[in-house]
Amino acid sequence: xxxxxxCSVAVKPENLLRHVNDIHPRHPDTPRLREELKAxxxxxxxxxxxxxxxxxxxxxxxxxxxxxxxxxxYFLAPYFAPCAGGPFPNVAGTIQIDHWxxxxxxxxGNEQVPIAANIGASQGCMQPVxxxxxxxxxxxxxxxxRLYTVGDFFLVxxxxxxxxxxxxxxxxxVTPSSNxxxxxxxxxxxxxxxxx
Length: 196
Hints:
Blueprint: E1 2-3, E2 10-11, H1 16-23, H2 30-39, H3 57-80, E3 100-108, E4 111-113, E5 121-122, E6 125-126, E7 129-130, E8 137-140, H4 150-157, E9 166-169, E10 172-174, E11 186-192
Parallel strand pairs: 3-11
Antiparallel strand pairs: 1-2, 3-4, 3-8, 5-6, 7-8, 9-10, 9-11
């Protein structure tokens, strides 16, 4: 053990320099003692040197691929997953063959039944037959070459087509059927005694 030349406190030889700097920073002899102690061997604790971290190009590429892949998977996975509980395959993110609209009005007794927005459409999931707004306008976005019927919309809507008392297609009264095809710019009125 050494003694501090200023205060005579016992200090380990490797800690004497730090003691002088920390305890006596304003003492008039501190600058001279600091220089003398730095010059002596064994006064300063040996510095532990860690191996330098070497970042190689492949490290950067690997991290970038992981970040890009993870971000892409997070945002694109819903577009490739099937729509939960939907009767048709998900068309979100696919090439769609066509896009047309049909107006559907459903009456229960003397009341018009509201057709909600986003039937068959949600985050990353879109049925080929769906709504966007709550106006009764049905959007048809097929990604396969086929026609869709009013019954297909009822499947997506998760309602029973049931037994309507009257069906009017483009101002023409027809026999009520769930097989009526949804043609572009068409209008379909369905009348029920009671619709649930």
